[in-house]
Amino acid sequence: MPRAVADRLDLPWPEEGQTALAVEKAGALGVKGAQQPVPIASLTKVMTAYVILKEHPLKGGENGPVVKVDEQAAAEAHSLSESTAPVRQGQLLSQRKLLELMLLPSGNNVARLLARWDSGSQKKFTAKMNAAAARLGMVHTTYTGASGFESTTRSTAADQLRLAREAMKEPALRATVALRSTKLPGQAEPVRNTNKLLERPGVIGLKTGSSTPAGGNLMWAAEIPDGTSHHVVYGVVLSQRVGTSPTEGNQAALESSERLLDALQERLPAALAAYGDGRDGRR
């Protein structure tokens, strides 16, 4: 996509952190901020889910194999220092349900459980994550755990945008990140998605991530109507309000993403039409 299209949009880029945007089948809309590796918190779980689904594909509506919740995952469910999912020792949950519990409430304990289930240890699974990142050309990314709790897991907005576009090709992942909530057996209240951007029309995912060292981070995908069709837009916003509380950072990332999405919904179809058909980047 020529720079002229991005310039025509006059987007409200966040003043802090780093941001990357792209349109499916058309190309990059731009990257703002120094693309230096920074902590990404729970955006890490998108790669965890991607690797799990490459190793254990789910076709159609399949739920996949049943996994027993181990003692470690159950104990970690009571942690007060990180986001978790309320699983119990000995509980039998399908692979699909565990993906939901990892991605929606951002369960760190479930991310590590899936890593152990797949590879026997989080260390061995993390090696698979880094290998996948290398294959995808994410040259500024290093994973040191499956959950994102470690601030040593670092990446850039451009690298995470590359992952977002690839991850959404996985039907099971795409279906999961679009869910507002999921049911957990034995629990009356639904487990809700932390991604409040899903409340906006057209948003189809993806993942939140926030911590004091990482600030607020949000990876998202949205369908923007254009006549009888639509454009799928991907965005990654990193390092909003670093050093504040996870709640404040998460809110800042949400607000930055909402401003970008508002502008794209208003201006993208016309900008692409002025360039060409907007489908493949050619006149």
Question: What is the element layout, followed by pairings?
Answer:
Blueprint: H1 3-9, E1 18-23, E2 27-32, E3 38-39, H2 44-55, E4 66-68, H3 71-76, E5 92-94, H4 95-103, H5 108-119, H6 122-135, E6 154-155, H7 157-167, H8 171-177, E7 181-182, E8 191-192, E9 203-211, E10 215-226, E11 229-240, H9 246-275
Helix pairs in contact: 1-9, 2-5, 4-5, 4-8, 5-6
Task: Explain the overall architecture.
The chain is of the alpha+beta class and about 280 residues long. It has one domain (about 5-275): DD-peptidase/beta-lactamase superfamily (Beta-lactamase, 3-Layer(aba) Sandwich). Helices cover about 40% and strands about 20% of the residues. A five-stranded antiparallel beta sheet has the order 2-1-11-10-9, sandwiched between helices. A two-stranded antiparallel ribbon has the order 3-6. A two-stranded antiparallel sheet has the order 4-5. The chain is globular. It comes from Streptomyces kanamyceticus. One of its GO terms (biological process) is regulation of cell shape. Keywords: Carboxypeptidase, Cell shape, Cell wall biogenesis/degradation, Hydrolase, Peptidoglycan synthesis, Protease, Signal.
